[in-house]
Amino acid sequence: MFTNWIVSLLVNTVVLMVVAGYYEPFRLEGAGAALLASIILSVFNLFIKPVLVLLTLPVTVLSFGLFLIVINAVLLMLTAEVMGSSFEIDGFGAAFLAAIIISILNLLIQNFIIEPMQRRKRSS
């Protein structure tokens, strides 16, 4: 379980750096800031996200789960707020688009890199 968390942290760190490198309204000072943002975001996802999901459950159900992207954007903005000048996002729209990009990249990395490696490890 600890190994899965570390892998998730590293994947999120890389994804945050990629988004910051290609999406101008989303800025990180460097790899250290990306790692710290990934740690803070994972803590927020562990403690704050379940509460937000529960509070917004009717809206989430009505939107077929798409409101979760709004929650992810809010958590990204909260992370940027906590980190100060080392992590900046230019508004909610930028955070919303970044949340979509981050979700897609995480999904691709999980399905095409992490899971095949885990399957290969289990079979050997």
Automatic annotation (TrEMBL):
<keyword id="KW-0472">Membrane</keyword>
<protein>
    <submittedName>
        <fullName>Phage holin family protein</fullName>
    </submittedName>
</protein>
<dbReference type="InterPro" id="IPR007165">
    <property type="entry name" value="Phage_holin_4_2"/>
</dbReference>
<feature type="transmembrane region" description="Helical">
    <location>
        <begin position="55"/>
        <end position="80"/>
    </location>
</feature>
<feature type="transmembrane region" description="Helical">
    <location>
        <begin position="5"/>
        <end position="24"/>
    </location>
</feature>
<dbReference type="Pfam" id="PF04020">
    <property type="entry name" value="Phage_holin_4_2"/>
</dbReference>
<feature type="transmembrane region" description="Helical">
    <location>
        <begin position="92"/>
        <end position="114"/>
    </location>
</feature>
<feature type="transmembrane region" description="Helical">
    <location>
        <begin position="30"/>
        <end position="48"/>
    </location>
</feature>
<keyword id="KW-1133">Transmembrane helix</keyword>
<keyword id="KW-0812">Transmembrane</keyword>
